[in-house]
# Entry
Amino acid sequence: MLTVSTLIDPGFSPHSLNKYASLLTTGNGYMGVRGTHEEDYTQQTRGMYLAGLYHCAGRGETNELVNLPDVTGVQLEVNGEPFTLLSGQFEHWLRELDFSCGELRREVIWRAPSGARVRIVSRRFTSMAQHPLLAMQFTVTALDRDVTLSFSSGIDGTQTNSGRQHLDELSLRVFGQQVLQGAWATQSGSHEVVITSHCQLSQPADSCFTAKNRRLMQNSVINLTVGDSVTLEKVSWVVQRQPDTLSLDTFSRRCLNDLQASAAQGYEALRAASQVVWQQEWVKCRVVVDSRDARDQLALDFAHYHLAAMTPAHDERTSIAAKALTGEGYKGHVFWDTEVFLLPYHLLTNPETARSLLRYRYLNLAGAREKARRNGWHGALFPWESAQSGQEETPEFAAINIRTGLRQKVASALAEHHLVADIAWAVVNYWYATQDEAFMREEGITLLTETATFWISRATEVNGRLEIHDVIGPDEYTEHVNNNAFTNYLAWHNVEKALHFARQFGDVKPAFAQSAADFLQRLWLPKPDEHGVLAQDDTFFSKPTLDLSKYKAKAGKQTILLDYSRAEVNEMQILKQADVVMLTYMLPERFSAEECLANLAYYEPRTIHDSSLSKAIHGIVAARCGQPEEAYRFWQAGCEIDLGEDPHSSDDGIHAAATGAIWLGAVQGFAGLSVCDGELHLSPTLPEAWRSLRVPLCWHGVRLVLDITADDIVLTTTQALSLWLWGRKVCIEGEARYARSDFLNGKFGTATSEGIA
Ligand code: BGC
# Structure
């Protein structure tokens, strides 16, 4: 069996409770359950979310991922003393998430204030084999005297999203001595969820049930003799009832049957079934590095685990939240993070999942068309923040100035339009990687032409040329500018590809062809200056600079906004995140290596990296420019975003995009993978610390494995495949080894498009 890392929570601390609750989330793409402790702590935020279950709680709010009733809590008393790590002493501590099977484990030895010692071992996982299933065990052993234990566990409907209650209770039931069931509906009535739990103790106990104050609980008392153990095994089944299907009664009965059938198998069998699916995932997709720094493999496994746990591959009506299913940050909304930072991973490992993520946008076209129309444009203007309906979900206001009472408007929904072209970019990449004609003929072409139509209507004519005014590029510290280079180039790419593929698939409407051709001819694409540097927008170069070292040292915390207002930041050359560098990353074929390097050198000192989407991109561009050590520094800094020591970095969820970027950095940075004009290019260069790198990929339906060392690369494919290696075309079938020196010292002469394998 494949050995995969485990992530360790180094010790109990009230300060890092929520960070580790996010990092240790157990998830299966359908549901995410924060890795909270079974016992309560005031600072601890419990969370259980179903992908796609959003609700808007009231005036001034937007839809948010609903925090569901909790089933993981266990209140334990030992001889009448509540178990909490804040009192008594704990003599042993182990807490880890085992990535190989997605099991969260904890083992503590606790001495109650009165002196009784118990060992507590808990385990839980959400099943990869049966999505609605969450199983846990909680075992207590009396270590040095007889004890009386009382357990209280059930379904706790008091959970909220930061105090906002989304659910109305529909029913609470108990069946026999072990099964509890509750049904809730969101207040708008749009969603119903049924949670059923089977709670079984391994020893006879005095049990009773209570339903009080939104909690349905099983309460049990047990006398345990010294040396003995008791295990509470709890299996829960969490499902949404789809409207217009079975009645709630029939549906609930079905849930009960499903739960009982699963619970009868027992924890170990359920875990084993889930582990089989995890193992298949690991074998298919795991990137393996032999590094001097063991944390590098941990970071890659962390990324891989969360990429699987966050992705609703089972449901094309749902996409990936910016904080995955690990917390309530950004209210569970979907951003460009999905198409640009997460989709490439799926595309190159599980293309069906990439298709499903693009289908999510396709199914939400109605909302995007409506947004464009409401703003006076044509085509599709996708919402900057999206949830389930495809409507704009960006909150209208952000922080409040508590002196003036005025709220600051969030401008992204109004002007951060590059998302439209990012989606088109992802569609094009999907085609390049899969050649999926059926998708292109329907969803692909529709998405490309609708987004292109938006850009054509969005452009403004100025002295005969077309410009794009009043936008926000990826750098959100610079708002409402004209001709943001990133936006213009991506919009051009969007329209060009729409026209190209409309022609290729034979369905180009003459009016569209004409307006697209005109747009392509007249859209202003700012050119690099004499040093190769591209202006971020029309006014950027005219703004003053500021020494940012103080703020860069606290990257991610937006400390610049403590010293300067947003308006002041807007008037300086200060970037929150990669913008022109992002452009050189996304469209590498448009810029020479010298230009990429010049822009990296110019923009890096001006970039605080206050967004988690920034460092990794600088790293990949640095790697592509032949600076592997600089790239490695960026890559490791990107890994630290969630895995670093800051106890609060991930309180409200992990950074999904940064997780994708860990994979991107290894694959696009060090394995040097890029797609230029539809062809696969590899240009591996490992950092000093890495002795080898293994990357499994999927390209045109062919499975391809790269085994890279400093000196050579071995490519193994399941079928014949041609690709570019260090600038030369090679054809591979089976296994082929290439020495780096043969390519770089010109043994193969000039670049050729013929096979050299
Ligand atoms: C970044 C955006 C990103 C969003 C969600 C913001 O801080 O500036 O680029 O899409 O976070 O991750």
